[in-house]
Write a structure and sequence with these properties.
This is Arc family DNA-binding protein. The protein is mainly alpha-helical. It has a domain of 34 residues. It is built from 3 helices and no strands. Helix 1 packs across helix 2. The longest helix is centred in the middle third of the chain and has 30 residues. The radius of gyration is 20 Å and the shape is elongated. The termini are far apart.
Length: 65
């Protein structure tokens, strides 16, 4: 499995440590899930925007075809 090194400020690390501890999880598991969640959210937002554009331009596309 590939790895990735991330750098955090001391304050960011403290916040990460506190959040992970509050959820009873390791910092690594918490950070991993946060990154995956952000990637999935970005994909979801992109797909919603693309769907909106396709709907909004549907009539124009039909007339141009």
């Amino acid at each position: 499995m590939a790895g990735l090194n991330l750098r955090f400020t001391d304050d960011e690390l403290d916040a990460l440590r506190e959040r992970a501890a509050a959820e009873g999880r390791s910092m690594q598991a918490f950070a991993h899930d946060a990154v995956i969640s952000a990637v999935n959210e970005h994909s979801r937002l992109f797909n919603e925007a693309a769907e909106h554009v396709l709907k909004a331009s549907g009539e124009l596309n039909r007339r141009l075809a």
